Structure formats: C-alpha cells, structure tokens
Amino acid sequence: MSARRYRSTVACRSCRQRKVRCSLNLTGVPCIRCAQDHADCVVDTRNETNRRHVPTRQRPRSSNSPSDRAGVYPGENNTIRSSPRIEASQRPALHRVPAESPVVTGSRNSESGERFTIQDEERNGLEIAEAALGKPEQAGQVPFYTGDKTGITSTLTLCTPGESLPRHLLIPSHAPTSLSEEDRAYLTSKGVFSLPGEEACNSLLQAYFRHVHPIMPVIEADHILHFFHIGRLCEYNLLLVWSVFFVAVNFVPYNICELEGYESRKAMKAAMYSRAKCMYDNGGERNKIVLLQASLLLGFWHSEMDEHGQPWYWTGLSVTLCQILGLHRDPDVARYNTSIGDRQRHLWRRLWWTCFFRDRWLSLTLGRPLRIDLDDCDVPMPSVADMLSDLIDVPESMFATFLPQDLSLLAEYWVLLINLSRLLGAVLTMNYKPIRPKPSQSQVEALEADILRCSPPDRHDTELSRPARFYLYHLQLHYQAILIVLYRPYATETPDDLLPAHQEQWQQTIRRKADSAASRTNDILDVLAEENLLEYALPMTPPLLIPAMQMHLLNCRSGSPLARRLRLSKLNVCMMVMEEFQKVYTVASIYRVIFAKGIQQICPEEAAETINAAVSVAVPATAPAPALSNLVAPPISHELELGAEMDGMVDALLDGSTALNFWETWGQLWE
Fold first, then answer.
1. Which DSSP string do the residues of 25-84 spell out, in sequence order?
2. Residue 138's closest CA among 146, 128, 147, 148?
3. How far apart are the C-alpha atoms of 671 and 667, rounded to whole Å?
4. Which of 19, 276, 338, 417 has the greatest number of CB atoms lying within 10 Å of its CB?
5. Helical (H) or strand (E) element with 384
6. Is residue 585 a contact partner of residue 539, using CB atoms and an 8 Å limit?
7. How deeply is 421 buried, as exposed, middle or buried, from its count of CB atoms within 10 A (0-12, 13-18, 19+)?
8. DSSP symbol at 387
9. What is the mean pLDDT of residues 406-410?
10. Dihedrals phi, psi of 658, to nearest 5 degrees
11. Cβ distance 554 to 503 under 8 Å?
C-alpha cells in the first residue's frame, strides 16, 4: 500500500476545490498546477484563528569563514554562540524534528509533523535545484557538491542541453544553533570549555604555526590569530582550537606542560586529543569543512589501545569528507563558478592536497591501499599563493610573533612535497599492489627520471631560519625515501622485458642506487643532529627513516665481516635518532624495538660491540647516556611475550619485495 499523501495546509482555491496537493508553500503564487493550466491562482483569505499556522524557519546570518560560524560553544559567560559575532539573544533557537523520529502526540499531530517534514525535504531539494540553475532564492552558506554526471542534479542537464551546470554550490544552512543542556553539561565535565592559560595558548599557537602549518596548512591563520589577539579565543571554533593545540604540544617548552599541570608532553598531548575528540563527537559540529580540518590534524594520534589505527581512521574520514564536499574536483571545470570565492578556492586546494599527502605517506608507512585515485580528480595542483592567501591581512607584528619569517620559501617546499607525494603514489601503484602487471624496464626508468627531476635543493642559504633549514632537510628525507621504495623490489626481481644477460648487472646498479639513497639519509640525520634541529621533528618524521633502516638491515645479511659491521653502524645511527624521537612519538618506540630485535637476530655476535662504538662516536659529551641495552634488544617483557611472532616480523622486515607494512604484523601479536 502506498504511503499516504497530504494536501498542503495552505492551498489556492483551485487546488482546494480539486482536492489535490498545492505547491503554494514552495513556489508561491502561482502554484505549479495553475501555471500549467494558465489559470488565475487565487488564495482565499482566512482568519488567523482558523488557519493552521505553518512555522517559517529563520536562518541565522553567518560569515564566509567555516571556522567562524560552525561551532556551537559557550564562552566565558556560558552564552551559547553559533558565531563569535552574534549573541544568543540576537538569534532564534532552531529546533527541527528529525525525519526519522517525529514527535507523536496523537494521530493529528503525527500527520502534521510528517507533513512538515516532507515540506522541509522538498524545500531542500528546491534550494539545490535553484542553486544549480544559478537562480537561488537566498544566498547560500553551506558548500554542496552535486556529484559527477550521474549526480543528484543530472536530471536538470536534460533541460539545458549543451550547457554544463556547476557541481559546487552554496545552499542555505538549516543547522540547529543550540546545544542541549545534557550535551553542554557533558562537554563542561570533559573540560572542553576550559582553555589553557594565556601563556600556554600563546606558546601553542606559536608552535603550531612555526612547526606544523608549513607542512599541514589546514587552518585559516588570520582568523584564529585575530581571535587570540583580541582575547576571545574561547569564541573561536573550539574543535579547531583543541585540534591545533593537540598537534602543537610536541613543540612547546616543557615548562609550559608543567605550568598546565602535566607531567610530560605525551600526557598533555593525550589530554588535548581527548578534548578535541570529545568536541568532534559531541559538539554538534555540522560544518564539513571544520570537520575536515579537525580530522586532518587528529590523524597524528597514535595509541596502543587501538593497535595504532587512529591515523588511518582519521585520514579515512578526511578523504570521505573531501569527496563529499567535492574538493577532488575543479569547481571551475565547466566555467568560472562565481558562487565560490577565491578565499574558498585557496582553502579547498590546501585541504585536498594535504589530505592527498597524508593518504600517500600513510599508505606507504602502514602498508594499506591508496584511498585516492587521481583518475577521479581534476583539481589544480597547489601553489604558493594557496598557502599565503589568508596571511595578507595579518599585522606585521603578529606575523613576526607567530609565523616563520621565510614562510614564502616554506610554501615552495610544501608545493614540492605535494609533487613528490604524487610520485610516491605512482611508485606504490607500480611496485606494491597485490594484483598488478609487471612493469617494463622503460616504465621503471621513466618513473625514476620523474623523481630525479623533483630533487629538492642540496644546499641551503646560510641566512635561512632554523625552521626553514629543518624543512629543507625534511624534504630531502622524503625524496630519499621515495627513491629507496622505488629501487628496493628490484634487488630480487627484474622487469619483464629485461634480457637475462643484462639482469645481474641491472640489479647491481639498482642496489647501488638504493644503498646510496640510504647512505644519503644517514648524512641528512647527521646534519640534523649537528645543527640541533631534531627538536623540529614532526609526527611523520620517524617513518621517513624506515626505508633507509630496512636497506641497512638487509645489507647486514651479506658481505665480509667488516662490510657488515660498517652497514650495522649506519643502522645504529638511525637507531639513536629514533631513540631521540621516542621521547615524543609513540610510533618511534615501536619501530625501534622491531629493529633492535632484527639486529639481535642477524648480527648476534657483533651487535653489542658495534652499538657501543656507534654510541661513543655519535653522541655528544653533553648528551644523556642512552639505554644501550635497549638498542640491542627489546625489554625482557617483550622478549617473553613475542618470541616466534617477533621472528616472523623480522622476516617480513627483511623481505625485499614488500612495502613498510609493520602495523599489520604488529597488530597480529595482540589478537
């Protein structure tokens, strides 16, 4: 039996007499039926006391910045705000009944609630159609992506043959603007409305913009700095505030952690993450751009409680949000889309390519499939202007306080990093997919040539700031890692079209190139340690060492005793750097214990002597003495628990044809 249909509570005389549904609520005068019949659309005047009143939805005004208008958070006086510029008394509280759960207080009320829900749904469809046709009744605020050729507005293209409709629209917002008392009380109990002190906030924002923003430019810098400058950071989007603080904790002085009552950076970072995630799950955030910004930042959380799966989880959310918003597509592919501002274009490109960057490198590090297929994307590559676009109006004094002085150069490094990430995706597709055609020699060499053309500068200007020097070295680490990942499988296999007589010589050449890239990685680490730049290491820095460490460990299986000891010494240098990283990053501890076990199994006689020698040469006299026993073997508890499972992990580690799939094997240890 078909669902019951209801006539509109407001209908013209003709539709009321014919007892048919009238579109007057949606289209106004004339209704659709009267327009089709070329008849006069007459609406009877009725007394207010006898008329069923249809409530109209009032839409709050909102700014163009998604981070300014997206949250619903109490400030210092516990006033509810959906925008930092509008007080609660100036806005109506909107309470919409979800379509899935209408309020039932009798048959008549149930029918009325369902009727209003249907009208809301139809109005939303009308708003989408009007925006797609370029004739919106109201200015839109919420980004909406209609999809490709088979998307939601594809029917309208039949009405406009030869003309392409825009896929990126802005439609009116119908998001509720108030939190329930229960949600507010819960968020208060979790401390999300209690920001750190002014000194800590200042230090955290400095840390974010000097260390994280140059490689993850996902926040609109001028907005958050403006709110901090005027002393109203609590009125900015709190989900973004806590997400920024979470990734910035690694770089604040230790006394800031003590000042806020934390025993370590790791403890403070866990608290910041907990509050950001609480806001993400319970803060009522509806703006997908804000959710995307937060999920990209929260993707740096590692925890053994979930088998270190959070980076993959959060990045998956980021990719999904990007594709829902259509950030993978060029909004101007058909014609220039006047509804999208240049500021939005810059932000959208930054968000999309940051998401792409995370997808490629996490796929390598975690041994997971690539989520983004570039054949589905046509968004332009990023530019320096994309990163600098929201800094034009930042006062010079504020810029000098919070941002690196050579940010324009760092923006160039970021663009080059995105290009390298594209090439990494090509390497993973060609070499590491489980079902793939075997590449030809020309394909391998063509991809190698593309990578070599993207080589970052070898030297830097002596006047560069310390952050700029670090980011250049960091870019070089990415470059060397890509080369190793390209070369490594061909130490044991050859292209299909390579003649047998040339195979051995070709493989030797490939192995030398891979060894050279691994040695170059060690050179970069030496410089980072010598210039005291390891403190700038980012969450993605420890995984960049793994390709070189795997090559060193692989080479320890062959050669003369002296050659093996020399290769082991290179691995030990990486181990000492990894030990430094594990003070801040959990993932470094995992990597270190796996390689320690590998060293112990491959070189049981030489391991202790070589490690002691490496420590005495490489560690400065002022540095604290490292735990030498931990470099040779994992703690006893691990030794007892892992046993044969760790042996299998080391075998996988030495497999020359696999990518860096540590986590899959690591997760199996706890099943």
1. HHH-SSPHHHHHHT---------GGGSPP-PPPP-----S-HHHHS--EE-TT--EESBT
2. 128
3. 7
4. 276
5. helix 384-388
6. yes
7. buried
8. H
9. 94
10. -105, 160
11. no
Other C-beta atoms within 10 Å of 118: how many? 15
Q: What is the DSSP letter of 437?
A: P
Question: 7 or 21: which carries more pLDDT confidence?
Answer: 21
Q: Are 351 and 360 in contact (CB under 8 A)?
A: no
Q: Which two tokens stand for residue 186?
A: 């819960």
φ and ψ at 73, to 5 degrees? -135, 140
Sign of the torsion angle spanned by Cα atoms 385, 390, 396, 400: negative
- 3 state SS for 313-372: HHHHHHHHHHHHHCCCCCCCCCCCCCCCCHHHHHHHHHHHHHHHHHHHHHHHHHCCCCCC
Q: Rounded to the nearest 5°, which phi and psi values hold at 446?
A: -65, -40
The contacts of residue 650 (CB under 8 Å, 6+ apart) are 594, 597, 598, 601, 602
Report how far residue 527's alpha carbon sits from residue 440's, in angstroms, rounded to the nearest whole number: 37
Backbone angles phi, psi at 369, to 5 degrees: -70, 155
- Work out whether the CA dihedral 234, 237, 240, 242 comes out positive or negative: positive
Q: Is residue 441 within 8 Å of residue 495, measured between CB atoms? A: yes
One-letter amino acid at 113 equals G
Structure tokens at 271: 């608290």
Distance CA 215, CA 657 (A): 30
Place of tokens 């014919």: 18
Instruction: List, in order of start, the domains of the chain with CATH numbers.
Output: 1-54 (4.10.240), 408-536 (no CATH), 537-671 (no CATH)
Structure-block tokens of residue 175: 């998001």
Pairing of strands 80-81, 73-74: antiparallel
DSSP 167: S
Q: Say how far apart CA 537 and CA 531 lie, in whole Å.
A: 13
Radius of gyration of the chain (CA): 30
Phi, psi of 198 (to 5 degrees): -60, -40
**Structure-block tokens of residue 667:** 């997760």
This prediction has a pTM of 0.74
Averaged pLDDT for residues 246-260: 94
Which has the closest alpha carbon to 654: 518, 513, 550, 516? 550
pLDDT score recorded for residue 501: 87
Interval 228-250 mean pLDDT: 95
**In b/e form, how buried is each residue of 495-530, taking b as 16+ CB within 10 angstroms?**
beebeeeeeeebbeebbebbbebbebbbebbeebbe
Token pair in block for residue 66:
């998604």
331: left (phi over 0), alpha (psi -120 to 50) or beta: alpha
Look up residue 477 and give its amino acid.
L
Lookup: tokens for 466: 């310390």
Tens of pLDDT, residues 526-559: 999 999 999 999 999 999 999 999 999 998 888 7
- Residue 187, token pair as written in the block: 């968020």
